[in-house]
Amino acid sequence: MRKNIVAGNWKMNKTLQEGLALATELNEVLAGATPNCDVVIGTPFIHLASVAATVDTTKINVAAQNCADKESGAYTGEISASMVKSTGANYVILGHSERRAYYGETAATLKVKTELALKNDLTPIFCIGEVLEERESNIHFNVVKSQIEESLFDFSAEDFGKIVLAYEPVWAIGTGKTASAEQAQEMHAFIRQTLTAKYGEAVAQNTSILYGGSCNAGNAKELFSNTDVDGGLIGGASLKVADFKAIIDAF
Ligand code: PGA
To answer: Which domains does the chain carry?
Structure first.
């Protein structure tokens, strides 16, 4: 059966010292707890190794927020999937809307990044989601379907089964404007139908589909109570341990 997952996305926040303090605090808070979901924290690249060495990685998984679309070589400033893996991280967030919008990530690039992540035994958290105009023009289902098809539908069922999806409507990210529980469930059910048509019932039912976009301590329970919402990708609220813990406790 699919996993429930609460994944934090720190984005470009926290110095190394601040990040280690946050990770240490989360580790302490979870030490005596048995979460009913997998917990992941997505830190800046340069924090990964220190954070992975600081937390109990049997309880807190560590994620990068991106990786290169090349294996290795003369690509100044890039970080490869194998480097991410070597830090102790075991997840990587790919295709976040901020990377698509500000850094020109395309469906083709994201396909290669996903391949490299899988090759290096990293679990991709692959982000999809429409912008406001697309929802208002009622093409949001087609947009999300194309994002999945173009980057992920060349994978075998076995490989696809290793991928986690995160539906993040762009209009809900960092805006305080969460999708309603109905809007989230409707899209998640549509995504699962799309996966069923391509890979069959078993793969579709086993795929974790997270919701992201202004998910917080106050609305997590309602969002997560939907049949097809298997957790959250949490930005702002992952930067405060009490809030992040409350979201974990929503399961
Ligand atoms: P937010 O970000 O929770 O701050 O809206 C979510 C995300 O971008 O992953």
So the answer is: 5-248 (3.20.20.70)
